[in-house]
Amino acid sequence: MSDMLNQAVPTAAAPLLAVRDLRVAFGGKEVVHGVSFDLHAGEKLALVGESGSGKTVTALSLLRLVGEAKISGQALLDGCDLLTLPERQMRAVRGDDIAMIFQEPMTALNPLMSVGAQVAEVLQLKQALSKMQAWAQAVELLAATGIPEPARRAQAYPHQLSGGQRQRAMIAMALASQPRVLLADEPTTALDVTLRVQILELLGKLQRQTGMAMVLITHDLHLVRRFADRAVVMEHGHLVEQGAVAELFAAPAHPYTRKLLSSQPRREVDEGADAGATPQAPALHTQDLRVAYATPLPGIQGWFRRGEFVAVQGASLALQPGQTLGVVGESGSGKSTLAQAVLGLLPFQGALDVTGQQWLQPATRNSAHNQALRRQVQVVFQDPFSSLSPRMTVGEIVGEGLRVHAPALKPEQVRQQVLAMLAEVGMGEAQFPGLLERYPHEFSGGQRQRIAVARALVLEPQLLVLDEPTSALDVTIQQQVLALLQRLQRERGLAYLLITHDMDVIRAMAHQVLVLKDGAIVEQGPALQLLTSPQHPYTQKLVAATQ
Length: 547
What we know:
By secondary structure, the chain is of the alpha/beta class. Among the domains are: 102-178, no CATH class; 264-291 and 307-375 and 463-547, Rossmann fold (3-Layer(aba) Sandwich), CATH 3.40.50; 377-460, Rossmann fold (3-Layer(aba) Sandwich), CATH 3.40.50.
């Protein structure tokens, strides 16, 4: 630690980190307004709030990593103000005393360096170890985070690791200098539910072993309840409430905290659709569905033939109109492959009928038959920001399908249908003047997802594939989008193939649930029954990870 910081001798009762009246402004506009809180040694503190609440900016400001920002107030580490330290001394604090785990390891890690080299680099810079010593200790750190075969994995590049392994590598980097404070910014957002639990348990174990204090930045209230000792709730840059987690969850004082706690997805589906009183042709039916990818074989045999990786095998399911079939499973279980096959984007073996018709295989994929069938099955993707073209207006985005599948419509007819569909999903011109001429970046995440839903429904499909439709949204916006989807299903009799790892979303939306593991269906049945009494050990593990 820097000499200046070593000069501060805190009292026994003093907090390790004391933030006082922290204010952050960009271009003269203040985005964090007088935030104050304490962090004691060995404590786990959660910064909670929706996107735009200022929680990440608050954490980054403690390390002075917010570019072009004016920061005022105090951040006292052992009584010494981090906000007034010279940059040279601040560089010594970063990593040595306060380290950070960023939200998305794939973008935070250097793609051109092996993960072992990246951990070793920290050790060489911060602890002046030799190259050989740093590498050996980097392997030990990777092993401590639970990465299998750490010596081999240390030589792997980020893209060669799974999401959980990349996050563990990030944790190893953060812990390389044995910091006293660890800032974890949404450390489990990109992970499956079981991996989330593993990462939290790992962080808790390492925190107990080292005695470091932790700040967990998240909007996931399940994580807060499961992990943190105290919570600080932020709204629009203001600290609105703080206290012990048990007390705050039991009796929230501020309306915003109560709003967050009550924003869990609510089940408002047509239960009668589950009873199947009136038999109908299924919107989706598969029998012994098999999807495989060609893979190269090693050695000389790869010159003459190719191997294969079976991503989905023996999948048999039926989805009735007006129902939702939830598909759950960890990364690599085959969920996305199943969805792509249903959308007619992958070749398959076995039977796969969409609205009573089967996709023609690759040789005739662009046939009139497939184009007509493609209108009946549409998709809503996970991230509306990346799935909507930034160079197209809202009118062009929503009306694109009509121009392809209904070329006889006149421009004014397309415009009217687009406006009607946008109004149905809660995006009217009265509320958003010039709506059709606006671009996606001019809307919030929830509004962009409504536009994505309108784009899918303007063709009046019978089946909608929902690929993690709310995982990129805050809890309150998630609730609004799910309520919209539930209403549209009731009114239009839509069938939903819902792919998600969020059991709360499954509990709110699904009539039936299908559990995939390694490409095979291990369990399926009525949603509430399966979630209440799972039979397969893998399903039990998934359900337990969300409780």
